[in-house]
């Protein structure tokens, strides 16, 4: 018999969107507690790795409560055209409050069905979002379509690490401690039981690299971040 979390993973994007709407108000606090503040370090590393010039059209996919958009706006100001995309309207509203309504454009949409013209993005960033999308191949193809020739996609995501004697404390923390802490902060049990399941179902870093290459990307590379369960993956169209 399937658990409620396994059923949630198989449900459509509207159900996943509703789950994020429910946790939106305490999402940032939960991230701070569950990651021991490391998610802020990971996001800073991501933004510091991105090459952006004045006038670039930058898309922040799965923008959530706007952490990446906030760091981008702080670093580049209004010299870039920043576009925040998310399928949770509650998360996007919080991001708009954090970043500022005049600093970015906010698009309430599923990233797999965006009505954007071909080659419209100079830079595309996805932070902790790809594993929540069921159609990964379709999303990668859509990212490729939207990017301009020579443009890069930057992906910050959890790594589906293989079990070993050396990483069992990290796996125990992810699988057992983080759901407990998430439930403690938000009061929502199933939403944070979903986290380790979503990481397990996400392909490993080599498989994601293969998917990017098969979609047409080149110069595909990645960097592991401390403590080893997160990576920044970069690919060029």
What is this structure, in a nutshell?
This protein is α/β, with parallel strands linked by helices and 237 residues long. 48% of the residues lie in helices and 21% in strands. It has a single domain (4-236), classed as Rossmann fold.
Account of the 3D structure:
The chain has 237 residues and is α/β, with parallel strands linked by helices. It has one domain: Vaccinia Virus protein VP39 (Rossmann fold, 3-Layer(aba) Sandwich). Helix content is 48%, strand content 21%. It is built from 10 helices and 7 strands. It has helices at 4-10, 13-23, 27-35, 38-49, 67-76, 89-99, 136-146, 168-186, 189-201, 205-214, and strands spanning 57-61, 81-86, 105-108, 121-127, 147-158, 218-225, 230-236. Strands 3-2-1-4-5-7-6 form a 7-stranded mixed β-sheet, with helices on both faces. Strand 2 (81-86), helix 6 and strand 3 (105-108) form a beta-alpha-beta unit. Helix 8 (168-186) runs antiparallel to helix 9. The protein is globular and about 45 Å long.
Give the arrangement of secondary structure elements:
Layout: H1 4-10, H2 13-23, H3 27-35, H4 38-49, E1 57-61, H5 67-76, E2 81-86, H6 89-99, E3 105-108, E4 121-127, H7 136-146, E5 147-158, H8 168-186, H9 189-201, H10 205-214, E6 218-225, E7 230-236
Parallel strand pairs: 1-2, 1-4, 2-3, 4-5
Antiparallel strand pairs: 5-7, 6-7
